[in-house]
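Thread: Modeling a multi-component assembly for a lab meeting

Hi all, long-time lurker, first post. My supervisor asked me to bring a structural picture of a complex we are working on to next week's group meeting, and I have zero experience with this. I have the sequence lines for every component (649 residues in total). Could someone generate the structure of the whole assembly? Inputs are pasted exactly as I received them:
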Amino acid sequence: MRFLFKTTYEQDLRLFQHGGQVFWYGLLAAALATAPLWAGEYLMTQLVFIAIYSIVGFGLMMLTGFTGQVSLGHAAFLAVGAYAEALLAARGVPVFVSIPAAALLAAAVGVIVGLPALRLKGIYLAIATLAFNVIVEEIAARWESVTNGNAGMPVAPVKLFGRELEGDGGFYYLCLLAAVLACLACVNLLRSPTGRAFVAIRDSEVSASSMGVNLAKYKTISFAFSAALTGVAGALYAHKVGFISPEQFSLLVSIELITIVILGGVGFLHGAVLGAAFVIVLPQLLSIAKDWLPEGMAASGLQAVVFGIILVLVIIFEPMGLYGRWLKIRTWFELFPFYRRGMFRRQRSYLKTERLR
Amino acid sequence: MTDLAQLLVAGISSGCVYALVALGFVLIYKATETVNFAQGDLMMLGAFFALTASVMLGWPYWATIVFAVAVMAVIGMAVERLVIRPVLGQPAFTVVMITIGIGYVMRGVVTMVPGWGTETYQIPTPFAEAVLPVGGVILPVQQLAVIAMTAALCAALYLFFRFTRIGVAMQATSQNQLAAYYMGIPVRRINMMIWGLSAGVAAFAGILLAPVTFVHSNMGFIGLKAFPAAVVGGFGSVPGAIVGGLIIGVVEALAGYYLPEGFKDVAAYVVVLLVLMVRPSGIFGETMRKKV
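Re: Modeling a multi-component assembly
Sure thing. I ran the full set together rather than chain by chain. Output:
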């Protein structure tokens, strides 16, 4: 068992809290860095998708998990990033310019969405972002001179220093780099006053603003940051898939993205990665399982049913998500004979109301 | 002028369906402050039960409606008891996610049930293709029937909430749970009944919608258009849901006719964004302030 005695503020702000973390994250980094050596082509593709979805997960986690603003429209930011990247790549803009450009554009759109969001709360915000998503999807389908409409548009492969990034290695490292940078950006932001302000807004807007947090400013920053990360993910997604069309950015995708956050565990950056891995791996496992099931069961709806049941069960039995489960397991081992069942139990209110009482 | 009249009737009739789905949202929201994303899927399931009764068992139209509404009411209550009640008191969005999960399950299950599957079906109605000419304006009886049936349901619901014991108890529960509990109202059981009522209304909406969009496993996505309807009216206001639904229906019909292609699909969402910009809690919504 490890006791952490913090004696300075610097210690509290350190990126790694103790040697164990350095070791395990180092091991993870080594495993991921050498992945092209040990993973097959199939696994590499999955890893790339997990990296891309993790970036979205980070973005959404910052917004939903840490600032407490719900968005059901993140597929729209994904679309903005993807289309921006596709158009820039077609004009031969190098990837180190085009991806930040896509991120900036998505951030700008995020600010536009964030502005009405300043007045909206809870479900009204969710509906506003949902409406925004539908509108963006429709624009992508109708603005044919730019987006090529419903026919979709091909995306050129990534070119780096005049060489195409083909095969397993190159593109994987690009995605991995983006994911790690996104993660570091989130961690650093959360250690900074801005991140603290986000968390304060999530926990109570009234008390945050009475402590001098400018709600409008920080909510807008949160929206922009989240949208920018999603834009980066959209750009990478466009390259990975190689072909984009409006229906890839529908409302259902937005819902899938928010499930990353919920399944992973709201309020944990680790949760974003776990949730992303889960959302990517589940359909693959199901397609394997389908071969073993009887004919009637293996209908097209199987994935929806399993996904829905898992979502329901996780929320009922593990409200802290996959990462919360891991925390509980770890705590059980750390405290070995002394773990109590009620340790992580939240105070249960009969009904949390948003209404005037 | 005749165009306009026809468009208005068409808009109002599709608005009625939105209004009924929105009504389902609002009933549940008022009672439990849960936004039920599975409302559209409840509607879809109701339509499938109606299909079973009508096509496979050969029942008459009215019996079909009663059957589907009754079955869905039971399913709605079961959903509340099994899934929603254990998570009450958790953050609002967590509960929203759980209803999204329920929606996934329903959509998937429908494709697995033998005889339902992924195909598109039609429920025969007694109104069929008949039209009613009124002074040069040709009105489809189908649309008029939808409007009439919605009006009848609304009247019935009004009487129910106003004059029955359970209806008044439901009103009390949704106004203030704690006070209702102190008055001896079994709040949990009432909440369960509200879910049943809401699912029943959804089934009714599904049957009304069936002749327009036909019955298939994805017809529940129209529930996503009922959201704007509920929000425009102000989430948590029953008359607001009806008015919102009608507004969305009419705007959509007019946009489909007068504006270029593509505006019809987004009209509902543009309207909701505009309304939210002006009034952040809808037209009839009460302004909420949190006490510290």
